[in-house]
Amino acid sequence: MTDPPQEAPIDRDSRTTSFGLVRYAEDYRRGAVVVWDAERPRLTMVPYMLIAHSIELSLKAFLRSRGATLKALKNQWGHTLPELLEHALSQRLDRLVPGASTATQYVQWLHEANDEQSLRYIRTGWTRLPDWEVVSGFAAALTGGLHDHCLRRTIGREGAKEAIRNRGSGFNLPPLPEET
Questions:
Q1: pLDDT tens, 25-82?
Q2: Which of 38, 45, 73, 81 is the most exposed, having the fewest neighbouring CB atoms within 10 Å of its CB?
Q3: How far is 172 from 75, CA to CA, in rounded Å?
Q4: Are 36 and 136 in contact (CB under 8 A)?
């Protein structure tokens, strides 16, 4: 009996593209909106957790497009939204997402609300949550503003032109269900 062939190790840096990250960010953003719109009264932290993750993935997508490695994303910034935003702004995020710097305080509040993963795990007591319209709007501005840029960085300028020509700019996802 022979041993099965050895598989080459997975190169996570080449498999985790900026476009893949921004695509996931859009999925989390859309999920957050669905939960937000469905929850009455709004007593759940789930939409805030989802929107925080969307923002994190968008910022990491932008930094990947600027050459950041997965190791740097994990070890230098981790899940710290304010630091991710600060570094992305230093790399000129505002050229692709105008007004990104105006979300700094809201991102800080979102990060503080998620201290010790408290948007994921129950923690009693009071917490300050940022205005939903602001953070969800910022998440939408990020995914929308980064889509074409990350697509170009992932498949090249010509490939992105063709993809956009064939499928249009945007994630080509089905529309959100109408609220009933």
A1: 999 999 999 999 998 777 789 999 999 999 999 999 999 999 999 999 988 888 899 9
A2: 38
A3: 33
A4: yes
